[in-house]
Amino acid sequence: MKKVELHELQEQVLLAGKAGLEVQQNGKLLGYFYPGVQQDKAEVDALWERWEKVLDRVMAETGLDEEGLVEALAPKKVKKHEVSA
């Protein structure tokens, strides 16, 4: 990843193309710049359709409904309660 100073950022963004940049000021890291990638609508729609088919297949094979699948993929954390003395 190319390191650039903050005052060079605008110029370097134009030159970098699809590459990410490490942005610094006076040698200290400020953050990272990653250019957005545009996809055409048809490609995005096709990806969503494929994702939905995958989810349908997983639910059919596991017997989980949508709520069960969400719980399986991202279980809720159980909060520990403090006991007062």
Could you give a short account of the major beta sheet?
3 strands, mixed
- The helix tally amounts to 3
Q: Roughly how much helix do the residues carry, as a percent range?
A: 40-55%
* Spatial arrangement of strands, main beta sheet: 1-2-3
Distance between the termini: 54 Å
The number of distinct structural domains comes to: 2
Q: What best-fitting shape do the alpha-carbon axes yield?
A: flat
Multimerization status? single chain
List keywords for this structure.
2 domains, alpha+beta
Polypeptide structure, described:
There is one protein chain. The chain is of the alpha+beta class. The chain folds into 2 domains: 32 residues, no CATH class; 33 residues. Helix content is 45%, strand content 18%. The chain is built from 3 helices and 3 strands. It has a 3-stranded mixed beta sheet with strand order 1-2-3, with helices on one face. It is flat. The mean pLDDT is 86.
Give a concise summary.
The chain has three helices and three strands; from the N terminus they run βαββαα. β1, α1 and β2 form a beta-alpha-beta unit. The protein starts with a strand and ends in a 12-residue tail after the last helix.
Secondary structure topology:
Elements: E1 2-5, H1 9-16, E2 21-25, E3 28-33, H2 41-62, H3 66-73
Parallel strand pairs: 1-2
Antiparallel strand pairs: 2-3
